[in-house]
Amino acid sequence: MLFNIPWNLSSNWTFAWSILPILLIGLEVTIKATIFGFLLALILGLPLALLRAVPFRIISWPTAVLIEFIRDTPLLVQVYFVYYVLPDYGLIFSAFLTGTIALGIQYSAYTAEVYRAGLEAIPQGQWEAAKALSLQTRRIYRDIVIPQAIPRIVPAMGNYLISIIKDTPILSAVTVLEVLNVAKIIGDRTFRYLIPLSMVGGLFLILTVISSVLVRYIERRLPKEGIPLK
Amino acid sequence: MKQKPIARFEKVLKKFGDNVVLNEFDFEVYPGEKVVLMGPSGSGKTTVLRILMTLEDIQDGVVYIEEELLWHEQKHGKRVAASNAHLRKMRKKVGMVFQLFNLFPNMSVLRNITEAPIHVLKIPRKEAIKRAEDLLEMVGMTAQKNMHPAQLSGGQQQRVAIARALAMRPKIILFDEPTSALDPEMVGSVLDVMRKLADEHDLTMLVVTHEMGFAQDVADRVCMFDHGRIIEAGTPQEIFTTPKEERTRQFLNSVINREDTVTAPTVQPDRDK
Amino acid sequence: MTYTQMILVLLNGFKVTVWVTLISTVMGGIFSFAFGIGKMSRFWPVRIISDGYIEIFRGTSLLVQLFWLFYALPLLGVSLSPMSAGIWALSLNIGAYGAEVVRGAILAVDTGQYEAAKALNFTPSRTLWKVLIPQAVVEMMPPFGNLVVQNMKDSALVSLITLSDLTFKAQTIRNETLQTVPIYVITLLLYFLLALVLTGIMKWLERILTTASGREGVR
Ligand SMILES: Nc1ncnc2c1ncn2[C@@H]1O[C@H](COP(=O)(O)OP(=O)(O)OP(=O)(O)O)[C@@H](O)[C@H]1O
Ligand SMILES: [Mg+2]
After folding, report:
1. Which CATH fold topology does A20-221 show?
2. pTM for the whole thing?
3. Cross-chain residue pair A204–C76, CB shorter than 8 Å
4. Which residue does chain B place closest to C214, by CA atoms?
5. Is the complex ipTM higher than 0.90?
């Protein structure tokens, strides 16, 4: 298994070097969980945003409460909820998938607000102009609304991506072997927590720095006036 | 008035990046003098005031206030950049009234005026309050002394700002377009206060303004600015009626055409109440 | 287990959650000001330390920080109880985010205010404390409100270092009774309730500060 490789305890440096490969395996799980969780949040946020914007209060109001509820309760408890409740209904997923679903749910509440703000920021005049040209609703969205909303949405989404990276260690609570959990187990077995945990800190620092550079880069490349979809 | 100048620029160079705003700039103001600076936008008038107020440093040349170096100090016979302590000492001699008032919104009118005398000049609180109340009376703002700036009109705020600057008893007071951010009907009350100040005190005043009526009444000297230099200077009479320079004439015409209502010198007190 | 028993046990944990949240929020507020102002200091060592603190605690994960304080720090000779490790980790973490809020709000104050203070010869510290901060705190309140709720949510992580907070109690009685759904529904509702109360308090504070800072003019 993962932890069967021998670690070299002769010095701090050799110890660090010997555990790096398994930490990197854990890091891969971290990155996967981040990406899947983020994609799920992007998808789930959209219907929430649309339901929230519906002009009927019997629909929009409960949606608003639901969004607030998801936002205001801890991810850890949501993870447990999904992990322990879904199997009662015959839905049995792996720990990884469970954790990813919980990440997606928690962050859908944030992405929903981003979608909403992005759409609301488009000037009323744009809608009116589009209607005056009697474009179909679908074309209004495809050609006018969405291209203009994207440059407003991307930076906020980028920040949530970085937040998700930092939240993935919570999945260790339901046995997902992401990088922190790997380091913790190494610590439990060798009783040397300092080095693996510090290394994980360093790995997270590298990961968040790289992702924020990437997000800022994409942000700068986006034309402020909107991108054509075709 | 051939006494020693109270403020003097000597071959001053000021630039923002590559943009040279003042070059070889020479300028003098004498004690008690009321000088009005006029000129087109971007010609460097504000920059001159900000250098005197130590809000903007200089790249070359020297500035004196009361024959003392402002931006430099003599150390071991050498001229070096001024220390913070020196700047703090020199700053006491200068006061400034800003275009946008810059009152502290978190303090009452009275505290706006007493805060610096009490904590910077270290004068007793009672005395500072007395001083503030006298000044508020002079600017006609006694009734509003416990209000906050946000509750006052622009004209009222500017009068408080004048009182605030005066409370520090500066040797020279700088006004940077004190009425240009005001609604036209509030300009009069502020100019009245400034007139009164000019009449009743022998304070040195350096005023950037395009109010020709005010300049006519108050100024000992009007200086026309263009591209960082004074192209023409003289009494209001000389500059306004017989300008020598073509640029001066053009500028005055543009001012008169743009805002002929505001230049009228007749005002009633407290029009903006 | 009856619902009443369940609620009583959960309320016991809830008390711990409230306590940990309050203490770490207050401490986090202190760190926010200390390091947010420190990052603008005239003295470069202070700037470097503040910046390093902010980058490290924002750049790594809270759970990593919590585990580090709880499991790794004893190996350097400092042993913390679960309670202190939890409070330190939460407050240092939220303080790093708060520091950026404090700095941003101070830098956002109109430069005219800074210049007027300089023209009146205020010392830098008087300018900061009497002119800039009283105006900036109003701008800080909405983002601080988000951070307080964030911190409350984060407090659930202390259950992972054996502190008996609400989440920990929920886990314990779930293992005993397997009444999963009611336990977690009540737990989530309690957290939601706490979030609403905390948000309310922050809104109320914001109103008070707005009035005190003289923003509400009659004009
Ligand atoms: N902080 C600054 N950074 C860069 N350039 C500046 C700055 N302040 C002023 N300048 C430049 O210096 C020049 C002179 O500016 P200044 O404000 O002194 O003009 P002014 O005569 O007061 O004009 P106005 O009538 O518009 O107030 C302008 O070209 C301006 O762009
Ligand atoms: Mg100007």
Report:
1. MetI-like fold (1.10.3720)
2. 0.89
3. no
4. B106
5. yes
